[in-house]
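haha ok so turns out i had the wrong file open the whole time. this is the CORRECT one, sorry everyone. sequence first:
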Amino acid sequence: YQRRVHGNNVTHDMVAVELARRKLVHVGTSTNGRPVLWLRARLHTKRDTPLRDVQLTSLYIMERIVRPALRSELPGPAGETMVLVADISGFGLANIDMESTRFISEMFRDFYPELLDAALVVDAPWLFSQVWRLVKSILDPITASKVHFVSRADLRNWVDESLWI
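then structure:
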């Protein structure tokens, strides 16, 4: 997979600009001890982020941040999952990027199967319900079943409020 995207090594320098935008951040562990990635969807626009940057940054985050967190924060088979918080507040038409969404869903399906414990969609506006119909159609049914639409109050059951960004 790394060879297909960019050789064997994706370096910090290659993704520094995307990482600095803090669209996707490892914030710590969930209430059940899983590593938590926090996605701020409103910070992503297809116009400003080529697919190649999404691919490289996704690979870097998974290999350099998530995998080490799985091993160090909760070792063993029980710790081989993570929680994704998708903060959809402020999401609008400019944030829709089906090409990147398809890439990320295929990346999880093909290279990180069963890594996702839960994807928590927070503060989804009406527009996102329309996007969700499209996204759900490209997801594996098992993965789709792990997606939960939650309020900020419900999110407290999964992630301590001190970790929210």
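Strands lie at 24-29, 35-40, 82-87, 116-122, 147-150.
again sry for the mixup
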